[in-house]
Amino acid sequence: MGILFAALIFTFGVILVIKGGDVFVDAASWIAHAAGIPTFIIGATIVSLATTMPEMIVSCLAAAQGKIDMAIGNAIGSVTANTGLIMALAFIFMKVVITRKDYLLQCIILIVCAALLPLGSLSGHLSVWSCVMLSVLFAAFMLLNLRQAKEQSSAVRHSEERMVQNQIVKNVTLFVVGIIMIVGGSQLLINGGTRLAKVFGVPERIIAVTFVAIGTSLPELVTTLTAIRKKESALSVGNIVGANVIDLSLILPVCSIISGRKLPVSDMMLRIDFPACVAVLLLALMPLLLREKANRIHGIAVLSVYIAYLAVTL
Q1: Residue of 247, 239, 278, 210 lying closest to 87 (CA atoms)
Q2: Helix, strand or coil for residue 97?
Q3: At what angle do helices 68-81 and 274-291 cross, to 10 degrees?
Q4: Using CA atoms, how far apart are residues 94 and 299, in angstroms rounded to an integer?
Q5: Cys-Cys link to 71, which of 62, 165, 204, 300 (CB 3.0-4.6 A)?
Q6: Cα pseudo-dihedral 205, 211, 212, 218, rounded to 10
Q7: Buried-state track 198-229, b at ≥16 Cβ within 10 A, e below 16
């Protein structure tokens, strides 16, 4: 693959992801309102599962091919990028106001997942017990969201206009089309972008935690940017929290199963990548939960820590 062809693929991927994100957010917001489900819950479940498909695909393929640094680095790097870059942008450019009770348990699950990684990797491998705990936390996260969605939707009276058959078909179709465009565009970005990075001899771990991680996080980035434009802060924050939980609690155990052995964790990941992930999460989430809102200064602080992490890594 030549450099010019790689650049063309990358550019086409950007176009697909941006347009797909626009379609996706509109459809997801309509589904949430029509079903009487809080937008945060839609963002933390359906949207998050869809937007983490690139991370899942890349990490699983890397694990199957024995590229463990790529598999783990992509998952961890995506969480750090989702929080340090994408959530920070939401804080900077959007008025983010939350209700603590709607976010508290989900955020606690996310922080526990992140803390399990360094604790479960002290032996130099991601232990079996930590993979089991991560899987349990994923199940608890999904059940919690589904229960909240059921409780909230049952209390809402749907208007006849919202439930018109053709509107349902139209928005569900747009939702699926948006997913396909985002995932397909992201894969083109990964293929073209990774090739461009390798031309300059960048090591696999650095490619994974930076370039590939940011590339596979583009669905979340586009969803957030579109949500900023459409003033859907709950969808953005919910999507990022849900995507992060899925990256940590689902992708890593699945990668361990695919590889058929404990996932080896490099010393650099233990000393730099894991602590940076936990630090960015705590800095982003703790003030948000305590104050029930985020402002521009908070966002700049989170973004600054992420930029510092990239500077150390590169």
Answers
A1: 239
A2: strand
A3: 20
A4: 10
A5: 62
A6: 150
A7: eeeebebbbbbbbbbbbbbbbbbbbbbbbbbe
Query: Alpha-carbon distance 73 to 58, whole Å?
Result: 11
Cβ-contact 295, 120 below 8 angstroms? no
Q: Token pair for residue 26? A: 């509109």
The amino acid at residue 297 is I
pLDDT in tens, the chain (314 residues): 578 887 788 788 878 877 887 787 778 778 777 777 776 677 677 777 776 777 787 788 888 888 888 889 889 999 999 999 999 998 998 888 888 888 899 999 999 999 999 999 998 999 989 999 999 999 999 888 878 766 665 555 444 444 566 788 888 899 889 888 877 877 787 777 777 777 777 776 787 788 778 877 777 787 777 777 777 777 678 878 888 998 999 989 999 888 887 888 989 899 999 999 999 999 999 999 999 999 999 999 999 999 999 999 87
The pair phi, psi for residue 25, each rounded to 5°, is: -65, -40
Contact 3, 199 (CB under 8 A): yes
Beta strands 263-264 and 293-294, pairing class: unpaired
271, with CB counted inside 10 A (0-12, 13-18, 19+), is exposed
User: At 127, is the secondary structure helix, strand, or coil?
Assistant: coil
